[in-house]
Write a structure and sequence with these properties.
The complex is a heterodimer.
Chain A lengths: L2 E2 L4 H10 L4 E3 L5 H6 L8 E3 L9 E4 L2 E5 L4 H5 L1 H6 L1 H8 L4 H6 L2 H7 L7 H6 L3 E6 L2 E6 H4 E3 L2 E2 L6 E8 L3 E8 L10 E8 L4 E7 L6 E2 L1 H8 L13 H13 L10 H19 L1
Parallel strand pairs in A: 1-3, 2-3
Antiparallel strand pairs in A: 4-5, 5-10, 6-7, 6-10, 8-9, 11-12, 12-13, 13-14
Helix pairs in contact in A: 10-11, 11-12
Chain B lengths: L9 E8 L2 E9 L4 H8 L18 E4 L2 E4 L12 E3 L25 H8 L9 H14 L5 H7 L11 H16 L14
Parallel strand pairs in B: 1-5
Antiparallel strand pairs in B: 1-2, 3-4, 3-5
Helix pairs in contact in B: 2-5
Classes of the chains: A alpha+beta, B alpha+beta.
The complex binds flavin-adenine dinucleotide and FE2/S2 (inorganic) cluster (2 copies).
The site of one FE2/S2 (inorganic) cluster has 13 residues of chain B, from loops.
């Protein structure tokens, strides 16, 4: 049967063993566009939509573990949103209600588009990715997993099963610029996470490089300019300097959506604005 | 059409659409749910304007969740309850088309409001918008203006400029609130 809809992960591995060339299908929001336009001709399909264990989340030790089958709608409200506000903010900016009902976290991670909206958040929050196959489970840090534009370290027999995010005491947000409010692929996106547990700031940049980037110099500098006991920024000039340092960390290009120059400017402004909202 | 790997992979499966089982025999495995309901099941209500999730004119409910039928792989929708615009009005009787199935042909309150408020011009976007508005008002009976705008943000209309669509949504929300509470006057404005 060239289209299989298993209900368990074990069933997924079994189906992949029977048809190793089958393509994995989650919400279909990237997959079906390629099929409809003739860019993808799957010889077989293993659909993940009925695997309920992938559409759940849990706390495991000091990590929150998000199943890859959670949709943007799942991330955007309820208990996950209150624990991971930046991820919820990113989820709310994706596509339209129809896209948020179907598109999944795992699909965004597996596609690894430079403009994927959850990716700057995962990078800022130091996420790791669970990859499972019949051969077993491995967990990989984001830096090792995201190898380039639409390139990841996932083997073809592996399923992205979960994303792990450390539980910290933080304030965090995700801001995005596009040409309109709904249904827009990011021109620039920034996640800023002010981590009170470890007294550091982490920043993930989207659409300004082949993969989501961090801004280590800006992060290190701004951590020295926060009053961690008061949870405040004593010198208001800090925001602007932080913004321009984040802009300097970008590696943007010109393309049909925007110019490198505008993108660098925009990530800086977004980072500055996010920090002002947070501390 | 040319197919890689030589053979064209076909599949046979059963879909549950508008409360009825439909057999799809020997469809190409990559066919979207939109293609299958329109071309194989004779349900042409959902429209195809983009085939890439951008316009919402193909909106259907899948297990009570609003999705773009063009982005659903039909053969993977086995076991799901699918509702198209044809299945919205309840009751027996036939509409047109080979399936001659769902609905009494009677209009829902949302459909009536769209007509009365002039929210239908060329009508191409209408089935998708009606699906989106039913989905919204079933979840949120008294939406704010922002919630309405967000709920229809995945549905493009090239004709109306949206004003009359917003008025139709408002009319339904007010109408549903007034039904069963005849003594209470309908609020004339919503918080926005
Ligand atoms: C109209 C429209 C608007 C969009 N807007 C945005 C936006 O604003 N921001 C954004 O980031 N994206 C956007 N997207 C892209 C898309 O919605 C996301 O990338 C989404 O997260 C993809 O997830 P999915 O579940 O639909 O994946 P699918 O389309 O099902 O799969 C995508 C790819 O990932 C693979 N895959 C899926 N799940 C797994 C898994 N668990 N393990 C291994 N491989 C897997 C599939 O084999 C496939 O190659 C948009 C798409 C559309 C059509
Ligand atoms: S045809 Fe499906 S969204 Fe346009
Ligand atoms: S009425 Fe023509 S597109 Fe909406």
């Amino acid at each position: 049967m060239p289209v299989v809809v298993p209900t368990t992960l074990a069933g997924v591995f079994e189906a992949l063993a029977a048809d190793p060339h089958a393509h994995l299908l989650a919400g279909g929001t990237d997959f079906m566009v390629e099929v409809n336009f003739g860019h993808r001709r799957p010889p077989g399909v293993v659909a993940l939509r009925a695997v309920s264990e992938l559409r759940s989340w849990r706390i495991e030790g000091d990590q929150i573990v998000l199943g890859s089958g959670l949709t943007y709608a799942d991330l955007a409200s309820g208990a996950i949103a209150s624990r991971l506000p930046a991820l919820a903010a990113a989820a709310r900016t994706v596509g339209s209600p129809q896209i948020r009902n179907a598109g999944t976290l795992g699909g965004n991670v597996a596609t690894a588009s430079p403009a994927g909206d959850t990716l700057p958040v995962l990078v800022a929050l130091d996420a790791s990715i669970d990859l499972a196959s019949a051969a077993g489970l491995r967990t990989m840090g984001w830096a090792e997993f995201f190898m380039g534009a639409k390139k990841t370290a996932r083997r073809p027999d592996e399923v992205v099963t979960a994303v792990r995010i450390p539980v910290i005491d933080s304030r965090e947000d995700y801001l995005k610029v596009g040409t309109r409010n709904a249904m827009v692929i990011s021109v620039a996106g920034v996640c800023v996470c002010v981590d009170f547990t470890n007294r550091r700031v982490q920043c993930g940049l989207g659409s300004v490089g082949p993969v989501a980037l961090r801004a280590p110099e800006a992060e290190g500098w701004v951590a020295e300019h926060i009053d961690w006991n008061a949870r405040a920024v004593p010198d208001p000039r800090t925001y602007e300097t932080f913004g321009s340092m984040v802009g300097a960390a970008a590696r943007p290009i010109d393309d049909h959506r925007s110019t490198a120059q505008y993108r660098r400017h925009a990530v800086g402004v977004l980072a500055q604005r996010a920090l002002m909202r947070l501390v | 059409m040319a197919y890689e790997n030589g053979a064209r992979e076909n599949v046979t499966y059963r879909l549950r659409v508008n409360g009825r089982d439909h057999d799809v025999a020997e469809g190409w495995l990559g066919e979207s749910l939109l293609y299958v309901v329109r071309e194989r099941l004779g349900l042409p209500g959902a429209k195809n304007a983009c085939d890439q999730g951008e316009c919402g004119s193909c909106s259907v409910l899948m297990d009570a969740s609003l999705v773009c039928a063009c982005l659903v792989l039909a053969a993977s929708a086995v076991g799901a309850e699918i509702t198209t615009i044809e299945g919205l009005s309840t009751g027996a009787g036939a509409t047109r088309g080979p399936s001659a199935t769902q609905g009494s042909g009677a209009l829902t309150d949302v459909q009536t409001a769209f007509l009365e408020e002039g929210a239908v011009q060329c009508g191409f976007c209408t089935p998708g918008l009606i699906m989106a508005v039913h989905d919204l008002l079933d979840r949120l009976p008294s939406p704010t203006d922002l919630e309405v705008r967000e709920a229809i943000s995945g549905n493009l209309c090239r004709c109306t400029g949206y004003g009359r669509i917003l008025a139709a949504v408002e009319a339904v929300a007010v109408g549903r609130r007034t039904v069963g509470e005849p003594d209470k006057p309908a609020p004339s404005t919503r918080p926005s």
